[in-house]
Design a protein that fits this description.
Layout lengths: L2 H17 L1 H6 L5 H8 L7 H14 L2 E6 L2 E7 L2 H9 L4 E2 L10 H11 L13 H12 L4 H5 L2 H16 L5 E3 H6 L1 H11 L6 H12 L16 H28 L5 H6 L2 E2 L2 E2 L2 H14 L2 H16 L1 H9 L4 H12 L4 E6 L3 E3 L2 E3 L4 E5 H4 L34 H15 L3 E6 L4 E2 L8 E3 L1 E6 L1
Helix pairs in contact: 6-13, 9-11, 9-20, 12-13, 13-15, 16-17, 16-18, 16-20, 18-20
The structure holds protoporphyrin IX containing FE (HEM).
Protoporphyrin IX containing FE (HEM) binds next to helix 15, helix 16 and helix 20.
Length: 451
């Protein structure tokens, strides 16, 4: 552990002892510079530092409040068991009442002012209770394993095209993120949604502008985020581009329904009425955005791990039945969705901390997925973990709708790619996206030889 972090711990422990165990235990606060680190998007491009802080918190203050002048105070929940306990009780820990993603205080106020709601879009992620069940059930059967399996052959075809294109490179080098990982899941989810191939580039750009709004290399205008009004205007402009596109898609699928998710959404009835334009757009944007960046990140995470561990590549190649284990471990290891937020609807005691009605909580999937009480040697990458209880897809009422799709997509890509490569190695400096919300490898230069 670094010297700087050790000093921070001493300060935190000192505060605990001078204030009396009971009092501080009940109002545990995250040491301020750790709070700064964990709320700064740039930190997530240096995952080791983030993990060092989260490891300390799991051991010393597993549920504690981040008090930081840029953000409204929130509880940081770091243990696997606690994330599950919160998610299991969706009636107590709700999604609709406040933002489901950590955004700065001034930005929250600007969203409220413009949208008259804590949310920039309306989608299942921001709904609770019956409304959530009604909207989720519209597409749920589409994403169940039975239906997803029917798409296997089509996915395999798409995977093969991407693998061929990669392996044909004469120099044996590529940026696995921009050459493979970004496009394959995008192509799959766009086909399911019903967006034609020629529009995929636009969808990718808009998704990156939404999730990478603070990353200077991905944002439409990263400087806009310095001012809440300009930041919201920028988000609205990106969403406006999405909506303009999807309004046309709705009109088309109402006139000519097909066997795709856009047709299900466009023709949905909510309590006997056609779904509103706003709700349909919120749904499309959620699927179009949640459906690929996350899967790309986990796919690239797997290749990063294999490129650094030649023995693991050999192990999987010798026994391809390990691929589902590789997929689970890559998703755990990368944990592309770092958190979601919940708001307490009533007072609640969590690991001895008194959560009050109205308090905001951050569920750290990143931390839960490294919990030493659940995962043996959590920082090792192991394709043969016996029961990988990774929680990267969340849990409970809001558990990821696309989890079966994401896993099958990754499995098929690795089945196509791994038997064909002889060696994989890192051939440059990889980089991570700067985001507190969805972040994964942004650049992964690799060198490979082919069997
Ligand atoms: C490795 C890939 C993925 C990861 C790590 C991931 C992660 C997550 C997480 C953490 C949640 C919130 C769960 C909760 O609150 O308990 C979520 C929700 C969701 N995900 Fe995914 N996701 C992935 C892929 C996908 C794909 C491929 C799709 C769709 C095509 C998708 C669609 C959704 C939707 C619609 C929700 C909202 C569910 C609800 O609120 O009821 N995701 N995902």
């Amino acid at each position: 552990m670094g010297e700087a972090l050790r000093r921070r711990i001493e300060v935190a422990k000192g505060t605990m002892m001078t204030s009396g165990v009971e009092e501080v235990f009940n109002h545990a606060t995250v040491p301020s510079d750790m709070g700064e680190l964990l709320t700064d998007p740039r930190s997530f491009a240096r995952p080791n530092e983030v993990h060092e802080a989260l490891t300390w918190l799991r051991a010393n203050q597993p549920v504690s409040q981040v008090v930081n002048e840029r953000y409204e105070p929130f509880w940081l929940v770091t243990k696997h068991q606690d994330v599950m306990d919160v998610e299991r009780q969706a009636n107590i820990f709700r999604n609709g009442d406040r933002s489901t993603v950590l955004i700065p205080q001034d930005m929250l106020q600007a969203v409220e002012k413009v949208m008259h709601s804590p949310h920039l879009t309306r989608s299942v992620v921001n709904m609770d209770d019956r409304e959530h069940r009604v909207y989720r059930s519209l597409t749920q059967s589409w994403f169940m394993p039975g239906n997803i399996k029917k798409l296997s052959d089509r996915m395999r075809g798409i995977a093969r095209t991407h693998v061929e294109r990669m392996l044909e490179r004469q120099d044996g080098e590529c940026d696995f993120v921009s050459d493979v990982a970004l496009h394959y899941p995008l192509h799959v989810v766009m086909e399911i949604l019903g967006v034609p191939e020629q529009d995929e580039g636009r969808m990718l750009l808009l998704t990156q502008q939404l999730f990478g709004a603070r990353d200077p290399e991905l944002a439409r205008d990263a400087s806009a985020m310095a001012s809440p009004e300009k930041g919201i205007a920028m988000f609205q402009a990106v969403l406006g581009d999405f909506y303009g596109y999807f309004n046309k898609l709705t009109a088309d699928r109402r006139a000519n329904p097909r066997d795709d998710v856009a047709s299900v959404i466009a023709n949905a009835q909510i309590d006997g009425q056609p779904i509103s334009e706003r709700d349909a757009n919120g749904y499309y944007v959620l699927i179009a955005t949640a459906g690929h960046d996350t899967t790309s990140a986990s796919t690239a995470g797997a290749i990063w791990a294999l490129a650094e561990r030649p023995e693991l590549l050999k192990q999987v190649q010798a026994d391809l039945s390990l691929i589902p284990g590789l997929v689970e471990e890559a998703i755990r290891w990368t944990t592309p969705v770092k958190h979601f937020m919940r708001t307490a609807a009533q007072d609640y005691e969590l690991r001895g901390q008194r959560i009050k009605a109205g308090d905001w909580l951050m569920l750290s999937y990143l931390s839960a997925n490294r919990d030493e009480e659940v995962f043996e040697a959590p920082f090792d990458f192991r394709v043969d973990r016996e029961r990988n209880k990774q929680i990267a897809f969340g849990y409970g009422a809001h558990v990821c709708l696309g989890q079966h799709l994401a896993k099958l997509e990754m499995q098929i890509l690795f089945e196509e790619l791994l038997p064909r490569v002889k060696t994989l190695e890192i051939a440059g400096t990889p980089a991570w996206t700067q985001s507190v919300f969805v972040s994964g490898p942004k650049r992964l230069p690799i060198r490979f030889t082919v069997n």
